[in-house]
Amino acid sequence: MKIAFFSTKTYDKESFLTYGRKSEHEFSFFDAQLDYKTVTLAEGHEVICSFVNDRIDEYILKKLSQIGIKLIALRCAGYNQVDLQSAKKYGVRVVRVPAYSPEAVAEHAFAILLTLMRKTHKAYNRVRENNFSLEGLTGSNIHGKTIGVIGTGAIGKAFCRISKGFGCSILAYDLHQSQEMKELGVQYLELNEVLKKSQILSLHCPLTPETRHLINGHSLGIMPNGVILINTSRGALVDTKAVIKALKSKKIGFLGIDVYEQEEHIFFKNLSEEILEDEQISRLMTFPNVLITGHQAFLTHEALEQIATTTLENISSYQRGDVLSNEIKAD
Ligand code: NAD
Fold first, then answer.
1. What is the spatial distance between Cα 316 and Cα 23, in angstroms, rounded to a whole number?
2. For ligand 1, atom 37: residue with the closest CA
3. Interior CA angle at 50 toward 111 and 313, to 5°?
4. Is 263 a catalytic residue?
5. Average pLDDT for the chain
6. What is the whole-number distance in angstroms between the Cα of residue 107 and the centre of ligand 1?
7. In angstroms, rounded to a whole number, what is the distance separating the alpha carbons of residues 93 and 293?
8. Which superfamily is assigned to 102-292 in CATH?
9. pLDDT by residue (tens digit) across 235-246?
10. Distance 151 CA to ligand 1 centre (A)
11. Considering 103, 107, 261, 263, which one is annotated as catalytic?
12. Domains 2-100+300-328 and 102-292 share a fold
């Protein structure tokens, strides 16, 4: 099938060309993000392959169906960016990669947490300038802390296993409790109880209308002073304004984020020569206790292999008329 890739980066191209070399599909790689202006690039293709910040709303879906696109192959797990009702209306099917190395994301969440708690980002810069002073580098142990995990799906589970290895008490909230996690020692509680009792909170649930701004002024009020908040899931799980206020009042002790509410216009681009117009991320970057990475939690060799092979399998299954096990539908 002829596949148009949007938001393509070098690592996407490399992994699809490597793991897709034996497939019969034809690839067109476009750097452009999918939006109202770029949607016409899909002309002449049968499938589009898109990533987390490609806008797929009603207008785009209507255009895609007019162009003759029958399948959208998301090369990611989350699908909050797709208007599934409109996809149904215009007869465009949507598949995703439900799990690709959940450890990649869970390990990155832990990397952010460890960096913040041991200030290795500051130590790295100091030592490079021959400054071997330890003043201001006192950290805290993770061992013995109570960690709250919101969402114990594939990534949340991997995060719980790592937390267990570090000797933490683990509390969790999910709509569905996992027996496997209970056997690991994870204690499921109501959301507010998890918020109240966790010294470290890590978000691993999807972005849905119910979870949008799950972390807001009210929920932050319930959390203990100095709470450490880690978000590697989706930016809009967190009300950024409320988080900035909580950082100013020291309610939040450390904030580590790999995702950001307005990341669509910023992340995955080199803006080093430009003036950032986004006031909120600029403000976040002024805090010494905030660490931001640009949606890179998924970016490991293992995950890229899994993303490419599953995406291509999804497309081949569609071509053969098989049941699409990774399809997502409006209901
Ligand atoms: P998953 O579907 O395996 O697990 C999600 C879990 O969240 C499920 O157990 C589900 O029951 C739970 N959940 C759903 N609604 C909830 C709610 N209202 N409250 C509490 N729990 C709820 O998904 P996953 O593979 O573990 O991925 C989780 C999220 O991580 C994705 O939705 C995506 O947004 C994000 N993600 C980020 C990156 C990155 O690079 N930063 C990469 C992959 C995934």
1. 9
2. 233
3. 90
4. yes
5. 96
6. 15
7. 32
8. NAD(P)-binding Rossmann-like Domain (3.40.50.720)
9. 999 999 999 999
10. 6
11. 263
12. yes
**Amino acid residing at 188:** Y
Residues with CB under 6 A from ligand 1: 77-78, 99, 102, 105, 150-156, 173-176, 204-208, 210-211, 232-234, 258-259, 295, 297-298
**For atom 35 of ligand 1, which residue has the closest CA?**
233
Q: Over 90: is that where the pLDDT of 288 sits? A: yes
Ligand 1 centroid from CA 78, angstroms: 7
Nearest to 200 by CA among 114, 104, 284: 114
Which protein residue's CA is at the shortest distance from atom 27 of ligand 1?
A: 155
Q: Say which DSSP state 127 is in.
A: H
CATH of domain 2-100+300-328: 3.40.50.720
Band of pLDDT at residue 43, cut at 50, 70 and 90: very high
Find out whether 182 and 160 touch, Cβ atoms under 8 Å: no
ipTM for this prediction: 0.99
Angle, CA 50 vertex, CA 96 and CA 101 arms, to 5°: 45
Beta pairing partners, 204? none
Nearest-CA residue for atom 32 of ligand 1: 206
∠ CA 181-195-162, rounded to 5°: 35
Q: Name the residue at shortest CA distance from atom 2 of ligand 1.
A: 153
Annotated catalytic residue, options 234, 277, 320, 327 = 234
| Sequence ranges of the domains in the chain | 2-100+300-328, 102-292
Q: CA-to-CA distance for 116 and 256, rounded, in angstroms?
A: 7
Atom of ligand 1 nearest to the CA of 155: 26
The pLDDT score that the predictor gives to residue 7 is: 96
Q: How confident is the model at residue 265 (pLDDT cuts 50, 70, 90)?
A: confident
176 in catalytic set: no
pLDDT of 113 > 90? The answer is: yes
Distance 233 CA to ligand 1 centre (A): 7
- Half-sphere exposure (Cβ direction) of 224: Cα atoms closer than 13 Å: 15
Across the range 43-68, mean pLDDT stands at: 96
For residue 205, the 8-state DSSP code is S
